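[job 4417] fold queue: 2 targets
>>> target A
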Amino acid sequence: MQPRLHAELPADDLVSSERTGCRGGLGSADSLTLSPSPSVSHTHAAAPARRPLWAAAALLLCAAARGPAGREDTPKITVQALPRFEELRCLESNGHLEVQARLVDDVGDPLSAAPIELARGGAPVQALACGSRAARVRTLETDAAGLLCVRLIETPAAGSLTLSFRGDTLHLPAQAELALQPEAAAQLHLAFDAASLELNLDQPEQRLSLLLSGEGAASDALPAIVLQLEDGGQLRNVSTRGWLRSGNSLGFSVDSGELGAPGPARLLARVKNSTRPEEVAEAVALRSATVQLELAAVTPNADGVEVQLRAQSRAGVPSGGWIDLSLDEQPLASGPLLSGSASVQLPSGAAGATSLLARFHSDDPWWQPGEALPIDLGSPAPRGPARWPWLVLLVPIGYVCVRALQRPGVRQPRRAARRPLPRPPAVGRSGAAEPAPAGWSGTLIDAHDGRPIAGARVTASLPSLRDEGRGASTSSDAYGRFALPPLPEPIPEGAQLVVSARLHSDFQRPLPPQGRVDISLTSRRRALLGRLVRWARAAGPPWHRGPEPTPGEIAIVALRRGETDTARWAEGVQAAAFDPADVDHERETAVRAGEPAWQNAAHSEQLQKRPANEKLNPTDRSS
């Protein structure tokens, strides 16, 4: 702290240095020396802060030269710092004027707990400390950093405000004027660290972070920030904790239970009570959870074995999907998942199998399948204590008792057994074989949810131009049913069965024999996701590490590797998969146009030939 010397001496006590031969070196008093009088008991010296140390020493030497050291009229020196106000600002906050300032001494050290008075036009001004709800006060104090932040009460934005510090034993008074014209508040820009956030609800806590930029990011005191979740058109606040700032990154934690059920949503982080668009951060949040299966019951019946299973996760019961049972990696049967339960009917040949595996398949990518559940049909679930051994022991005892009570009766002669009467022939039955089916008929359903597909075009296409007129075409009705008329024999080789629907991938197979044909189609939305998963598995690490990669994971890996085209394709797949808008042929073609090359040529050829639709079940009606 640089001292300031303040002298208060009577005029009679000032004599020329010509007479005393002593120079004080005190600036304007440089040509004067001290001549203390007997009536003076206290000297309060002041000099400019240019040469305080040697000036004080010169003053002491002059005082010593004027008389003995033990005299009572020896001058006493008081050293005081000269404080000043810095960083004065006037801002507008929530309809009130906010004044900020910093009080420091002459070397820049902050003055803490210094009382400050505010006045406007000579009249005291009422104010509140920023963030305080206390009663109105006129005098406030600086904090540990010398900062003063007050909110003016009922003060118009006109004129000027006077900030005063009365001083104390170590500091001189200080005063400053501030024009009450609010300046534009420093802008604080918020942004999530990624535009798409993968939130695994299997974890009890999610750690998120915001990136800070703009002039407001340089401030140590940041405004309050609230987190909101928009899900299904509903916007609600989300509780946060553990806020921690590191440079321009602001991290915080959220309980997974606060984020709702798995599925796409939108996260918003905004400065509290702010309407500025730059003070709002937005990100797409894909919430996912792993589904685990549990065996509920195994019930033999006339058709085979019925297996009942339950599906659950840390985030609740899956909203849809299906469960299939396989034996040695060969699928046996499947059943839809309804309200978290599924019933799968196995044929009688599967009874006693010991290596069945149950797997969950999701209708939506945010429900992730867990590990396969092994099922042993040869070892049924244990039941309660068996009672039949006791019954076996009681049967012979009861039989002896009953026989002892019975009397021998008269034997009746046996009657000849009646021969069964011949049954009449069944009506409508004949030895002739039923006529062969004519044409093709069946149903079109979605491969994942089993819903009928209406309005699809079904065509029996013939290969040559001369046979083109013999082809047949029809459309499926509201129940997904279709019927194609028969074609004259012989049907040429290369005839195709072609199905095209607006929201489902095209289907094309060799024309099966005439009869019933049930066809399952995969939606274009799921076909894009399936191609991305197969591409990642063919590419291997680092694209594929977990059980089933997501578009967001592929985009993150691509950006880290600098492959912007791959990242753009993955983001396109993600938008098509989770956007509520329909995915038709044009949109599917546009997304597939950005698909990167397959890295494994052999596997690529196999996957490119793999059908997009999963099921073709031709069944001849003839017996």
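>>> target B
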Amino acid sequence: MPPETSLRNPAGWSWLSPADKATRSKPFLHALCQKGMTLPNVRKYSRLPVRMSAGLIVLFTLSGFRTFGGDETHTYAVGKVTVEQREVFDESDSTFLQNVGEYVRPVGELAQKMRKLANDVHVLTREEVIRRELLFKEGDPYDQRLVDESARHLRKLGIVGDISITSDTLPNNIIDVVVKTHDRWTLSPSLSATVGGGVSGFGIGVREENLFGMGQKVGVGYNRLSDRTNPNGGEVAFTEPRSFGSWWSTALQYRNADELRQASVDIQRPFYADAAEWAARSYANVGRLRIRQYQDGDVVRDDYLNQENELLWLASSSGSDTKLQLAAGYYRMRANSDSMELRPFDNVDLVIGSLSILSREYYKGSYIENFGRVEDVPVGYQVGLALGRNLHFSSLGSVDYFARLFGQGSVRFGGGVSGHYKASIASYFVGNTPDEMTISATALHFWRLMPNQTLLGRITTTIGSHWAPSSQLTLGSFSGLRGYRSNEFVGQRILVVNLEHRMFSMLSLWFLKLGAAFFFDSGVVWNQGEGFGGQRFHSAVGVGLQIESGKNLGNGFIGKFDGHSPVTLPLDTCDHRSVTIR
């Protein structure tokens, strides 16, 4: 956060005690004596400042304090708030088809028809949706911090972009505000296919993040994988971000697949902005989880765990620049299984209290995670501690305590470099003995090489201690090692390194923006009791095609190599290929 500016002592004046005044007046008296003045004369002249000050006070009183008061301090109020919206595609947009259409008339006519079709399919965000997300309203005292945070809040929604909030100062201390937004394409179809490692499958789905222009989210999907007992799977989800116009959101989800069958409801009032003073959440789910144990990429044990979870949570936030956040919650989990031994934390009734300190500000970046749109990048820190006590309402044996210490920070260096760091240590306790302890840390760096090129570097590690055999970490395509099966390597400790050169092309094809990414992935996984020095790193190199539709990116083709083997032709050495368009 920027250093606090004190207005109490702008000129460096000091208020002195009588003793301090006597001490600090000695050099002045000494100087007068050196000029030949006797002590009575010194006392005479030393009373001049007092007489002059009294005269000035009388003068300023008679003049109505016009020298240092008057109308210098104003209280401004928000006047008229105007919302100006743009369609997804308008005449100011420039795409590849439009540029070609300037020279080839049929292509230009096709571009116009496609633009009109897209605007007809997409429902423009309703004005009341934009207004309800603003953190100020007409008649409120004008606060530039709330104006800036309103812009960040609108960008975070993901349904509008190119946010601009401008103000115009009028007579009588009134400030009119104009909010400009540009709707984003929010209908996102998805198509994926996977072949390799003895597993084949595909998935198809569609997600709308701004249903009928009301900001609601709905998604539905179907997928099929050959390694499932029941190969078919599906999912449906709905989210109302502002239930009944309040800051409460409601999310419903149902997923039916062999690896996870779950129905959940999530009602929460989040810290929607830094100005929010409290937050709350109520969550519940019921379902069945498949737990697999792997060895050398193959399944050696397959179990199913029936689960039921409930969470109640309440938090407060106070402070201006640095915030103190206090939270309390109750977490209940019940589990049973016909084939596996239950873990100590599978049946708990935890009462948890936490304390954290948060200090952050934002700067505007671009070409970090998307194609040129403004990204609000945080700079600051957060540290916190959570402690829990198990009430043992369940008759099954379980843990007694829970503790978690966490911290994260973001730093903006010079030369377009920024760093983001996160670390935590969490553990259950049976008596005084740690159980299922987890230490995790991540360091992420972005380096802006050119206006539309960014280099990403990431190091992630997770260290497990006193874990049950069924608790495993997998290293593969889902955990940062692209080109491998998702469960290629397993263990209870993991280290992954990723380097990625992102090139955001200026080329646009209708509502799609194209780019590329060259990457290098390397990782290792091992178990407790095994030395890290003798472990073998597994690595992958490749190039991916980045396709942005609305706000999503997809990866392209991947190649891999192990140990110190040379890289020849990545696509020829790849035994697992996947293409995803989202």
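[job 4417] complete. Note on B: The mean pLDDT is 78.
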